[in-house]
Amino acid sequence: MAPLLTLQFVAALLTFVAPSLGKGVAPGQIKNFVTFGDSYTDVGYPAADGGYAWPTYAAGYGPFNLYPFAKSGGTCSNNLTYRPFPPIVGSQLPTYFDEVKNGTLHLNPKETIYTIWIGTNDLGVNALITGSDAPDVSIVPVRQCAVDIVKVLYASGARNFIMQNILPLDLTVLYSANSYPNRYWDAERNSTEWSVFMRELSRSGNAITELMLQALAPTLPAAHIASFDSYGLITDIYNNPHNYLNGTAPLNVTGCVKSCVYNMNDKDSDPVCTTAEGTDRDSFLWYDELHPSEQTDRIIAREMTAVMKGKPSKWATWLS
After folding, report:
1. Mean predicted confidence (pLDDT) in 53-75
2. Which of 60, 121, 228, 317 is at 20 to 30 A from 302, Cα to Cα?
3. Which domain of life is it from (predicted)?
């Protein structure tokens, strides 16, 4: 009976393991990555972190060939949350497809991974949190839009994807309970109410996205989709800065490298600004009232590089 029991055990083990077989990219497989998103991912120099954005660092850490399409100020779609900046749908994706069509861009699908990090502007000021969107728009279609980008790229031949979820925006200076009039919002507001609302938008948006991705993954044969937990990573930096920040100033997760305090309802006034210089900058989680610091971006780049190289990461889960 022993051989039979052994075979039954092996069969049961294979049944348990089988769903995870083939998940993720293989080590050394990825040589190129294409980015879509907003200022968190835009590589223009100086980037929104005051230096180099995370994709620039990841390209060097890989090394990988970087093809950046993310644009500062962007939303997923201006049909949902309008801002006068290039959204992914309607601008970034068409630009990418134009370059593919005219031969400027020719990438091997097996060796290329696509990263999508969007939502900060969709949820933020002049969008969901201030009610400035279309009356029938909510967090649900906004996050469906992000997931649909995977489907659009898959239909064009792409096979490898990383969806970066929304970071804990309530921990930024802009959306914290102790916020002040700043370059992004100088009008009167209830900062505590904003912080609570933004925490709920971020968390619910991430939960919705994860469920949508889990439902989508089995419908895309041969696709590899990773869910990257930006929310968890930034929260861990906030709670354990000594594990991540290494600047020469006291570690700081509630302030920012470049802080500018404005007069209420007076953007034309001269703000009172303070700026950390040199290696003191690496002591901060945030660069300004909304954006991660360059040191934080190095950490994001390190973890994203691990995912793209097929290595384990505490902050990523392969869904297919």
Report:
1. 98
2. 121
3. Eukaryota
Show Cβ contacts of residue 242 under 8 Å, excluding neighbours closer than 6 positions.
251
Task: Give tens-digit pLDDT for 254-293.
Answer: 999 999 999 998 877 899 999 999 999 999 999 999 999 9
Tell me whether strands 258-261 and 272-275 are parallel, antiparallel or unpaired: antiparallel
The tokens of 215 are what? 């439902």
pTM for this predicted structure: 0.92
User: What is the DSSP code string of 199-252?
Assistant: HHHHHHHHHHHHHHHHHHGGGSTT-EEEEE-HHHHHHHHHH-GGGT---SSPPE
Quote the Cα angle for 69-218-79, to 5°.
40
Q: Which domain holds residue 108?
A: 26-238+297-309
Residue 252 lies in a domain: no
Neighbour tally for 141: CB within 10 Å: 18
3-state secondary structure 141-175: HHHHHHHHHHHHHHHCCCCEEEEECCCCHHHCCCC
**Scanning the structure block, which residue is given the tokens 């009167």?**
188
